[in-house]
Design goal:
Elements (H helix, E strand, L loop, with lengths): L7 E5 L14 E8 L7 H9 L4 E8 L2 E15 L2 E5 L12 H15 L2 H4 L5 E8 L3 H17 L3 E9 L11 H14 L3 E4 L5 H11 L2 E4 H12 L3 H15 L26 H35 L5 E6 L5 H9 L16 E7 L3 E7 L9 H6 L1 H8 L3 E7 L5 H14 L7 E6 L6 H10 L3 E2 L9 H18 L17
Parallel strand pairs: 2-3, 6-7, 6-8, 8-9, 10-12, 10-13, 13-14, 14-15
Antiparallel strand pairs: 1-2, 3-4, 4-5, 11-12
């Protein structure tokens, strides 16, 4: 069918749609080009990939008559480094190959490569994407952490894509060519989710979603989802809900003012409130209610702290990067069985347990939520009442996973957040955890560096030097500050440490 210069028509293959349950859209695009231009352009390839068309055909016109038909289609696996291939150009009247048969064969190959039902088993299958203007090493470290976050959220990671750019694309974040590459990769691997390492604006999420037809979430939303799934206490659930609503509010959008409706009663003028305005108002009302509930919970926590101060029992708070081993250390020190797992943010709700030092001195040890780089500001604000417990601490134990190659960067992140929270003046003792995983020569170097006390949180025998050193720091703090700054925290569920 000849339409005209650069005009395009999309032909639905109704008999083909759903025939094999494959990955293609069931649509073909045919457009004409005047002159002798040969083959599909870069724009054609992008449309073919992003729209997942069955076929893209370009009909060249010469002297007002059809000349050659150039067709390209996607491939289930790369050929010569490309995920698409071009058919030999033919005159429209001399086609010998059946288009339907070709597309059916492609669908069968796509299904054979990655069955659709694997995607629909309730588990997200993601391609992780990072776009940076900095060094590739920093991007690799951040991507490694994003992989762990995805694992904590139960997401299967299919591939990782890192692109360095001089400037972030204002609409797609990454370049259009890389976007096409990701679309083809998702088609080949059966991905249903794009997970970005950067925080995206609402317009960027919408643009990438429209061009890839995949769900798109950013690092912030992933962290919020992990927190929502791990919170167990009433306070934790309220905090997470507030953070999620604050994150969601600016991302609300509407495509059509037809959803406007009168809400002012008889005689109201104009279109009244739109659906978007109503949703925003309801979210703001809910945020206000959550703020009041959190304030009430915070007052209850404050009264519990006041009762504890009267007992003159020192408080030690465990802080550190997520998955550094804080909960494991708490369990080993206090012979308790709080939840501990090799996952980022495995535990969120603060937990307190009593500990008796070797020289008949009793303290309360409190485990708090772990930190992470680029911690969402709304999340930090929502956990403000929980983090207030740290201000009651006499000593902070900064637990560090020295087996992590990026442990020094993690230390810098935690120390920066402590300064931001106004906790830099509280005495802090560094605890170098998982030192047993280092080679012997590195263990010696860490020990001689004097940066902290080396331990293995799972091995109680390695904790004796830590107990002695912690008791010395607590005694020194008590001698300077006196007993007025005492006691702390509960486990977030209404049970005080006894």
């Amino acid at each position: 069918m000849i339409v005209g210069d650069y005009d395009r028509i999309t032909i639905p293959a109704l008999a083909h749609v759903g025939a094999s349950g494959g990955r293609l859209r069931g649509l073909r695009c045919v457009h004409t080009v005047l002159g002798g231009a040969a083959g599909a352009s870069e724009e054609d390839i992008m449309d073919l990939a992003c729209l997942r068309l069955d076929l893209m055909a370009v009909l060249t016109i010469k002297d007002g008559l059809p000349e050659l038909l150039h067709a390209v289609h996607l491939m289930p696996r790369p050929v010569d480094g490309r995920d698409w291939t071009a058919l030999p150009p033919v005159h429209p009247a001399n086609q010998s190959q059946s288009c339907i048969a070709l597309i059916d064969a492609l669908e069968e190959e796509f299904v054979r490569e990655r069955p659709v039902r694997e995607v629909d088993r309730g588990k997200d299958r993601a391609i992780l994407v990072s776009v940076t203007t900095g060094s590739r090493d920093e991007a690799e470290e951040s991507m490694t952490e994003l992989v762990e976050l995805a694992r904590s959220a139960g997401v299967e990671v299919l591939a990782r894509v890192i692109q360095r750019r001089k400037h972030i694309h204002p609409r797609f974040i990454l370049g259009r060519g890389k976007l096409v590459e990701i679309v083809l990769m998702s088609l080949r691997l059966g991905a249903n989710l794009l997970l970005f390492d950067q925080e995206l604006s609402p317009s960027q999420i919408r643009s990438v979603t429209d061009h890839t037809d995949l769900r798109v979430i950013d690092r912030t939303q992933l962290i919020l989802d992990i927190f929502a799934s791990r919170a167990r206490s009433r306070e934790g659930k309220l905090q997470i809900e507030m953070a999620q609503l604050k994150y969601m509010l600016p991302k609300l959008t509407t495509r059509d003012d037809a959803l406007s409706r009168l809400t002012g009663g008889i005689g109201a003028r104009g279109p009244g409130e739109t659906r978007l305005e109503i949703d925003k108002r309801r979210i703001n009302d809910r945020i206000t209610r959550l703020g009041k509930e959190l304030k009430a919970v915070g007052e209850q926590r404050y009264h519990r702290r006041n009762r504890r101060r009267k007992r003159d029992v020192p408080v030690i708070s465990l802080v550190g990067y997520t998955n550094a081993g804080k909960s494991t250390l708490l369990n080993t020190l206090t012979k308790s069985e709080t939840h501990a797992e090799d996952l980022l943010f495995a535990t969120l709700d603060p937990t307190s347990r009593r500990l008796r030092f070797p020289e008949d001195m009793e303290v309360i040890v409190t485990d708090t939520v772990g930190f992470i780089r680029h911690l969402p500001a709304d999340l930090l604000k929502a956990f403000e009442s929980t983090l207030e417990e740290l201000f009651e601490a006499d000593v902070l134990l900064h637990v560090i996973d020295v087996s992590n190659p990026a442990w020094r960067q993690q230390v810098a992140v935690v120390e920066g957040l402590l300064v931001e929270l106004g906790l830099a003046d509280i005495p802090c003792l560094k605890v170098l955890n998982k030192i047993d995983r280092l080679p012997p020569e590195e263990q010696v170097q860490v020990a001689l560096s004097g940066e902290g006390v080396g331990i293995c949180a799972l091995d109680e025998k390695t904790l004796e030097p830590l107990l002695v050193r912690a008791q010395q720091v607590v005694r020194g703090t008590m001698g300077v500050a006196g007993p007025e700054r005492m006691e702390q925290n509960d486990n977030g569920s209404g049970h005080e440490a006894q």
